[in-house]
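New to this. Look over this protein:
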Amino acid sequence: MKNKKKRMKRYMVYIAALALAACSGAKTADEDEAGVATMLPDESNEVTVQVLEKKVFEHELVSNGKLVAGKQADLRFETAGVVVAVHVKNGERVQAGQVIAELDKFRLANQVAQTKDALEKARLELQDVLIGQGYAADAQEEVPADVMRLARVRSGYDQAEAQYALAKYEEEHASLKAPFDGVVANLFAKPYNETDASEAFCTVVGTEGMEVDFTVLESELPLIKAGDKVVVTPYADAAAQYVGRISQINPLVDDEGMVKVKAVVDGNSRLFSGMNVRVSVHRSLGEQLVVPKSALVLRSGKQVVFTLKDGKAQWNYVQTALENADSYSIADGLKEGDTVIVTGNVNLAHESPVIVVNTKRE
């Protein structure tokens, strides 16, 4: 009897425990459902859209390059001598023909005088030779060419004339002049010091029509051609942009599969030879379907663009062709006239309700 009562008591405890657990489980389920409702409110996503149209697409190819002056000359004096004056300094702009520095001209002027006197003596000797050949001294135009050539050699006239011309040339070039408009660089000489004719006295760097040297991959060659637009941005001034055109493409591929390209850029005197720059090559590829980069999202590793239909987002797998800084060209998956969702698409799913807050047409 006692055992029967014990079994009955255990059974009642077990039934009570089951009832308590059931009540607790129902409460937890209700709380979870309320939590989900709180976390996922039934609200439509706000998006902006644009109507898809064909437009001219500019492909952009990015590379690194270095600026080189289109005109650059190392200037030297024709003869060694003492520098008596330096009229400019590094960084100073000069115009074509402007005097940069001068040598002491005393010896050069003396040499000109001596060679001029020797030339006059040779002229008299030439006349004596011609008279000895039976020709009048004042009628040299009547002398046959072979006779005149022999007379000039015998009299030393040709040699005297060449020495006089050289002396005059050296005297004229004792003043170092700028060959073109530009900026002076690498000028370190001081007045009253000897200069060496074998070393450059200074460099003049032209600032108009700077050139940029850069490389492209062999596979990118079909995407560029001479005349294509380039935009150059110095790393020293990321906010500045300078426009130019490709001037030449070297028809050789190096061992690393790279091709050298040169472009002419107008720097407006703000670019310096040797600058490291970012080069963007732009080429128009005609009219194509183009979407902003913000319109494309990845779903399971695939490219997706959402379009708008009846107030809901429609999932579209797409294939892009080319890209530039802000856009993709679409090869497949969309058609002209589709209304593309360009912002607010990050958390969208297929047929998610959306609210359009702005529509623009490119």
About this structure: The helical segments are 2-39, 106-132, 145-155, 157-172. Confidence is low (pLDDT under 50) at residues 1-6, 13-42.
